[in-house]
Amino acid sequence: MVVEGIISALPKVVIILVNYNGHADTIQCLQSLTTTPCGASRVIVVDNGSTDGSVAKIGKWIIERGLMESGVGAGFVEVIALQTNTGFGVANNVGMEHAFCGDCDYVLLLNNDTVVVEGFLPTMLQTFDTFKDAGIVGGVVRDYYRQRDVWFSGGHIDYIRGAFYHRHDTCRGMRQSGFITGCLMLIPRRVYREIGGFDDIYFLNVEDIDLCCRVRDAGYRLVVNCDAVIYHKISASIGGLYSQRQQYYFHRNRMLFFSKSLKGIRRRLFYGLQFLIAIPAWLGIQLLRGNLNAVKGALKGYYDFLRGHTGKK
Questions:
Q1: What is the pLDDT of residues 65-123, one digit of tens each?
Q2: Does 75 lie in the same domain as 196?
Q3: Is 53 within 8 Å of 145 (Cβ atoms)?
Q4: What is the pTM of this model?
Q5: CA-wise closest residue to 208 among 250, 174, 266, 159
Q6: What is the domain extent for residue 271?
Q7: Which of 194, 207, 107 is nearest to 164 (CA)?
């Protein structure tokens, strides 16, 4: 249980939610943020050009609960409505720039299809007392539908296989990680001003890993505080893990990431391993499993990567 006095003494944190045709999930997330003393000073919802009436529905919910008043629940809730779908990274960049133009000390990037529990944010902030050079702090993300299952408790990048692996173990305390999931990222003002936000070449997927690597390469640590827990409706905002859209962006963008990260002979060896062994093997496995949409999405992603296409498909 977090004491009210501790909550009020926290640094100023602005929470950013990106919504795209997902008003029901966003409202549930806002409900969890405003009915528990999470300690944020404001919440910014960046609507990414939704076509399902999300802006009106979220706005109505905010007004009905009096959350346009500063100091109520999680604080002032603001909606920024973008005219088109700019992608996950760019929408978060808009929110971060807006937040840091004010007097906030940190931004918390939080997926709109999550539900939080009391005390998660103060626990994350405590990480900076232990790791003075922390650049991004994450927490443990559990599966919303199977709440005993851990979806993320750290991760590492395999530069040989061209893969990103989540840790799924239950942990306590703090530990360093190869990357922090964009589902839950706490970023200090100084780090954002030095490193910048997400790279807009990705549009969706892998932009969080790219940002983490840039922060790490600048000399900062990436830390997971295992005592801060939230719940995530995994891949709800992108139509499911094996949807054609999800697989397109993941496969195209992982190749973009490794092509940026690897140089010389290492890059050539990586391409050979991928196109001669790894990719055909993965496609064959998905065909045997009947995941035809995943195969179609991946093939389109690799095709566009080879053509040099970035950003939105």
A1: 887 654 434 457 999 999 999 999 999 999 999 999 988 999 999 999 999 999 999 99
A2: yes
A3: no
A4: 0.92
A5: 250
A6: 244-307
A7: 207
